[in-house]
């Protein structure tokens, strides 16, 4: 009998038994994640009632039990009652059942949909399973899509990057998006891992999949970007403006709110043209952002942009944004709601990052100076016609009259978004114009990474005795990397159906035993499957032993001198 992994509360034992009788049970090929599905316009992720249908036979489950099935395109209504139960009715109001447990909805041979829910102008459709999970105090329920990572990515990649950016750029986007969803994170709700909007990644479901994006996902299956055994935080934005920024200069620490935050060695400032010197002075930033130098994301309409205000326009805008941004803690002193802003004297930049991104600036008025920190706060503070600045890579020109009074401000900027990590427009240029493969694109934007499978642990714990990984090998190259901290003697790996035994070295290197094996000759160019285990790991083993390992598919390559 097949079932979902033990740590994913989806198709549990009875559901799997019911499913097996209907010949619909299958073992997931990749991790199963939980996605909170929002309403139209992402106005809410909580519901009192909802209408669901399937494009094929639909199954309704009360907790672990299948209680009803209906033919394709039958709209079924789910309503939360005051007592915490959910009533399921047909479209004409006929009551089907009342469910007290978590509601699960499956469409084994088709897709699930929510009546009138639109994504990208189309009826939204979804792979996987729906759960209706009640919130605290049973006031509402969340609609949660349980879906395999690789299917999820097919609904993400074409909505995060235009498909005309090319296959290799889409592959780079696939790896970055896979890293994002597999990385540990603080959850906004205990009921799901991520949401389907820009608050996480844009996931519009099966009806927005595109063949080229699907190919990109499939031809990077299982591949993640790794730095020192950890999945990297694969930040990306639309347009870097020709120069990416250090993570620490753009983001605050998510826990302590410290800014600048701690550095991430793989998210470092880097110009597209390596001869370009840092832009951390006013003179250098002005020269760069008032011109159009060669860069990978030069085709973006936001590569360079300008904004202009009269002194009164800017004062009015700041009057409404200062209080909101003060609430972030990155405006000092705080400007409280109801406070009146004095006449402006100037906008003054105090510190810049290597890309010219503003780290600290001042809003100087006649009687007060407000210090402003952090790129997102700067963007949302300095608005034009109610819209935030495209980026904080911006140079201000304060225009004054003959008496020294401020009469207007001009802004010259470059880029769209935070500008850390991969530039999506840059990736598109590198793929279509420079004909670079996805690994070269990723290694330009993420310093010192390796492209590997997700690190896994096999151990004497009954849930970890064996691990199976599916992955695509783009270059018929593979190296098995093992952290043998506990001195295990042997590893067994069933590679594409054939068993191989690896004797592990005993020498101690630092505080860990590392072993590397070239397994390229066992690997197919394309999709591969490996099952890891060890004869030392059995259910009856009393010694606590473990191995940590991954398969390196494209090696570490710090070269970024593409131009």
TrEMBL record:
UniProt cross-references to InterPro entries, sorted A to Z: Bact_Sporulation_Assoc (IPR051922), SpoIID/LytB (IPR013486), SpoIID/LytB_N (IPR013693)
Residue ranges constituting the Sporulation stage II protein D amidase enhancer LytB N-terminal domain according to the UniProt record: 139-227
GO CC entries: outer membrane-bounded periplasmic space
An annotated GO BP: sporulation resulting in formation of a cellular spore
PANTHER family: AMIDASE ENHANCER, N-ACETYLMURAMOYL-L-ALANINE AMIDASE-RELATED
NCBIfam families, per the entry: SpoIID_LytB
Protein name (record): SpoIID/LytB domain-containing protein
């Amino acid at each position: 009998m097949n079932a979902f992994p033990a740590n994913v509360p989806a198709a549990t034992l009875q559901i799997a038994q019911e499913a097996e009788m209907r010949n619909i049970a299958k073992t997931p090929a990749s991790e199963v994640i939980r996605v909170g599905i929002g309403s139209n316009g992402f106005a809410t992720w909580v519901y009192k009632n909802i209408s669901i249908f399937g494009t094929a036979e639909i199954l309704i489950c009360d907790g672990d039990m299948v209680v009803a099935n209906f033919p394709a395109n039958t709209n079924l209504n789910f309503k939360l009652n005051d007592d915490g139960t959910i009533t399921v009715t047909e479209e004409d109001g006929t009551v089907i059942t009342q469910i007290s447990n978590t509601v699960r909805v499956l469409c084994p041979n088709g897709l699930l949909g929510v009546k009138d829910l639109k994504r990208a102008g189309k009826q939204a459709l979804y792979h996987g399973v729906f759960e209706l999970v009640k919130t605290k105090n049973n006031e509402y329920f969340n609609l949660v899509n349980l879906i395999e990572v690789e299917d999820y990515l097919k609904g993400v990649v074409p909505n995060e990057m235009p498909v005309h950016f090319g296959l290799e750029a889409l592959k780079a986007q696939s790896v970055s998006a896979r890293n994002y969803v597999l990385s540990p994170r603080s959850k906004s709700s205990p009921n799901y891992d991520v949401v389907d909007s820009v608050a996480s990644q844009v996931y519009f479901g099966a009806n927005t999949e595109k063949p080229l994006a699907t190919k990109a996902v499939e031809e990077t299956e299982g591949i993640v970007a790794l730095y020192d055994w950890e999945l990297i935080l694969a930040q990306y934005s639309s347009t870097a403006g020709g120069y990416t920024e250090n993570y620490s200069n753009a983001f605050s620490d998510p826990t302590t709110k410290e800014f600048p935050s701690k550095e991430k060695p793989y998210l470092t400032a880097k110009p597209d043209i390596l001869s370009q010197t840092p832009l951390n002075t006013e003179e250098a930033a002005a020269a760069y952002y008032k011109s159009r130098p060669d860069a990978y994301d030069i085709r973006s309409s936001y590569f360079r942009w300008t904004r202009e205000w009269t002194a009164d326009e800017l004062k009015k805008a700041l009057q409404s944004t200062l209080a909101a941004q003060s609430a972030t803690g990155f405006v000092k002193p705080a400007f409280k709601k109801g406070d009146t802003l004095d006449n402006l004297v100037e906008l003054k930049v105090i510190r810049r990052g290597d890309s010219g991104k503003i780290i600290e600036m001042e809003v100087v008025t006649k009687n007060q100076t407000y210090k402003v920190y952090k790129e997102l706060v700067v963007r949302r503070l300095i608005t034009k016609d109610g819209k935030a600045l495209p980026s904080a890579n911006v140079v201000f020109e304060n225009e004054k009259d003959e008496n020294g009074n401020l009469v207007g401000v001009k802004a010259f900027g470059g880029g769209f978004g935070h500008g850390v990590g991969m530039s999506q427009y840059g990736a598109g240029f590198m793929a279509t114009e420079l004909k670079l493969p996805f690994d070269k694109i990723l290694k330009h934007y993420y310093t010192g990474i390796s492209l590997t499978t997700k690190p896994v642990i096999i151990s004497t714990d009954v849930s970890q005795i064996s691990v199976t990984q599916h992955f695509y090998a783009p270059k018929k190259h593979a190296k098995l990397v093992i952290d043998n901290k506990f001195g295990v003697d042997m590893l067994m790996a069933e590679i594409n159906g054939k068993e191989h035994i690896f004797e592990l070295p005993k020498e101690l290197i630092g505080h860990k035993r590392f072993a590397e094996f070239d397994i390229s000759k066992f690997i197919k160019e394309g999709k591969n499957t490996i099952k890891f285990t060890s004869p030392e790991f059995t259910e009856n083993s009393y010694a606590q032993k473990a191995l940590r390992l991954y398969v390196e598919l494209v090696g570490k390559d710090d070269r970024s001198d593409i131009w």
